[in-house]
Amino acid sequence: MYSDPWAIPSLIIACIGVLCVAATAVIFGVYWKTPVIKSSGREQMILLLIGICCSFILPFFYVAPPSIPICLVNRLGIWFCYSLMFAALAVKAQRVARIFYGVKRNIHYKPRFATPIYQVIFTLIIVAIQMIPI
After folding, report:
1. Which long-range contacts (CB under 8 A, 24 or more apart) does 92-101 make?
2. Between helices 116-131 and 42-62, what is the axis angle to 10°?
3. Which residues form a coiled coil (predicted)?
4. Nearest to 25 by CA among 7, 6, 45, 41
5. Confidence label for 103 from pLDDT (cuts 50, 70 and 90)
6. CA–CA gap between residue 55 and residue 51 (Å, rounded)
7. Do 127 and 48 contact (CB within 8 A), yes or no?
8. How confident is the model at residue 127 (pLDDT cuts 50, 70, 90)?
9. What pTM does this model have?
10. Which of 24, 47, 50, 57 could be 88's S-S partner, Cβ–Cβ 3.0 to 4.6 Å?
11. What does the DSSP 8-state code read for residue 41?
């Protein structure tokens, strides 16, 4: 329940986390067209922020009174949030590695599947595969 002594600190931390994610998203939006944000992989960063925000929202469902929708969110939420965060980071790291591999090998053409839409598709495929065992 929301009034339990162990729930109050976790909900306060979750609120602070959601506020930090919101502040980061606002800063990200303000500097959307700058070279630093463009080179960071904006689409992957959005997916990463969504995963982080979802993970900070989950404690509110953990302390809520049980019901079928709450239990469903509790069951799927932890898998989805962390799968989304790790998939976004893995695809982003893989893209950077492929680009630097091409530079090391002195290849002058753009690597295949390096556009942002493919990165988002790969991320969602990884998340979908991770959600299958549930």
Report:
1. 92/41, 92/44, 92/119, 95/41, 95/119
2. 30
3. none
4. 45
5. low
6. 6
7. no
8. very high
9. 0.86
10. 47
11. -
Helix (H, G, I), strand (E, B) or coil at 92: helix
Token look-up 């295949």 returns 112
Give the integer Cα–Cα distance in Å for 107 and 70. Answer: 51
Closest CA to 44 of 94, 91, 5: 91
The number of beta carbons lying within 10 Å of the beta carbon of residue 87 is 23
CA 44 to chain centre: 8
- In whole angstroms, what is the distance from residue 90 CA to residue 77 CA? 20
Q: What are 82's two structure tokens?
A: 């962390």
**CA–CA separation, 18 and 30 (whole Å):** 18
Q: What does the alpha-carbon distance between residue 129 and residue 49 come to, in Å, rounded to a whole number?
A: 20
At 132, list the tokens. 């299958």
Calpha distance 51→84 (Å, rounded): 6
List CB contacts of 71: < 8 A, sequence separation 6 or more. Answer: none
Nearest to 98 by CA among 109, 86, 87: 109
